């Protein structure tokens, strides 16, 4: 199963990705998570990417494309993968197509999680992430068992730096101009599967599983 996960910031891509990879046994490749780890580790990539992420802008294509290709070259991706947050521009999508063509492999689906803007803002406001393992919670919709503590690793839950309202607005703007065109891109390739992301986490997941059974 080779899947890309599309959708605006805050739509629930990370939340659903964790559940999908658990069910289908494929690696979860989140460009946001890889970049945040590079920032925390103070690598060269992290230093370059941090400036863009802080401002709610996309990290330049060349950096992200090289990063994703080297991740896809790893042996655990041989039988499938879930890309979360990549591609995010038409140029990234074309590079992914080129890479897959060279390897003789194809995408099975581009899942597009749809959520309206007011609901996205509400979700952002309540989002908390584990500073250790990156697991995602929400003070309104997806509470940890113990307040402020990650269920999985007992790490501290924090607010992501790019979840400040001003940065969120910029990210939504960037999504509209740079990433939304991918919906048409994958529609033309007959790979687009729209998912109503406004329902509960479990209902959205059930729909995703049903849709993936149809394409596989
Ligand atoms: P990235 O980490 O990919 O962020 P994003 O796409 O903006 O998405 P988010 O992680 O904010 O949201 P999500 O859709 O995963 O929602 P979540 O599951 O957390 O990227 C961050 C930055 O890195 C970018 O801005 C960019 O700078 C850079 N970057 C990354 N990839 C790049 C690329 N390819 N090219 C260039 N730059 C790149 O859910 C949100 C909240 O809602 C949570 O609190 C969750 O608990 C809650 N929730 C989820 N689902 C539901 C539901 N159904 N009902 C109620 N609550 C829900």
TrEMBL record:
Task: Establish whether keyword Oxidoreductase is in the entry.
Answer: no
Alphabetical list of Gene3D superfamilies matching this protein:
P-loop containing nucleotide triphosphate hydrolases
Q: What is its main location?
A: cytoplasm
**Residue numbers spanned by region LID:** 126-163
EC number(s) per entry: 2.7.4.3
MF terms from GO for this chain are: AMP kinase activity; ATP binding; zinc ion binding
Q: What reaction(s) does this enzyme catalyze?
A: AMP + ATP = 2 ADP
The residue ranges of the Adenylate kinase active site lid domain are 127-162
Q: Which EC class is the enzyme in?
A: transferase
The family database entries (InterPro entries) matched by this protein are listed as:
Adenyl_kin_sub (IPR006259), Adenylat/UMP-CMP_kin (IPR000850), Adenylat_kinase_CS (IPR033690), Adenylate_kinase_lid-dom (IPR007862), P-loop_NTPase (IPR027417)
Keyword list, A-Z: ATP-binding, Cytoplasm, Kinase, Metal-binding, Nucleotide biosynthesis, Nucleotide-binding, Transferase, Zinc
Compartments (UniProt record): Cytoplasm
Q: Which residues bind AMP?
A: 31, 36, 57-59, 85-88, 92, 160, 171
Kindly list the positions annotated as binding ATP.
10-15, 127, 136-137, 199
Q: Name the Pfam families for this protein.
A: ADK, ADK_lid
Instruction: Give the pathway annotation.
Output: Purine metabolism; AMP biosynthesis via salvage pathway; AMP from ADP: step 1/1
The protein's role, per its UniProt record: Catalyzes the reversible transfer of the terminal phosphate group between ATP and AMP. Plays an important role in cellular energy homeostasis and in adenine nucleotide metabolism.
Q: Which family does it belong to?
A: Belongs to the adenylate kinase family.
Complex formation: Monomer.
Q: What is this protein called?
A: Adenylate kinase
């Amino acid at each position: 199963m080779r899947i890309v996960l599309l959708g605006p910031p805050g739509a629930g891509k990370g939340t659903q990705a964790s559940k999908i990879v658990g069910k289908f046994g494929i690696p979860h490749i989140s460009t946001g998570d890889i970049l945040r780890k590079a920032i925390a580790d103070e690598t060269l990539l992290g230093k370059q990417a941090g400036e863009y992420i802080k401002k709610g802008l996309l990290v330049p294509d060349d950096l992200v494309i090289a990063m994703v290709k080297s991740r896809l070259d790893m042996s655990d991706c041989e039988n499938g993968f879930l890309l979360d947050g990549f591609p995010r521009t038409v140029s990234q999508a074309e590079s992914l197509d080129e890479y897959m063509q060279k390897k003789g492999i194809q995408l099975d689906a581009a899942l597009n999680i749809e959520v309206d803007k007011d609901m996205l803002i509400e979700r952002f406001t309540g989002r908390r992430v584990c500073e250790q393992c990156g697991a995602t919670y929400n003070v309104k919709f997806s509470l940890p068992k113990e307040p402020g503590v990650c269920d999985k690793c007992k790490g501290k839950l924090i607010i992501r730096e790019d979840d400040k309202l001003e940065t969120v607005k910029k990210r939504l703007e960037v999504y509209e101009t740079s990433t939304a065109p991918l919906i048409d891109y994958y529609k033309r390739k007959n790979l687009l599967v729209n998912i109503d992301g406004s329902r509960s986490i479990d209902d959205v997941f059930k729909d995703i599983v049903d849709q993936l059974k149809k394409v596989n």
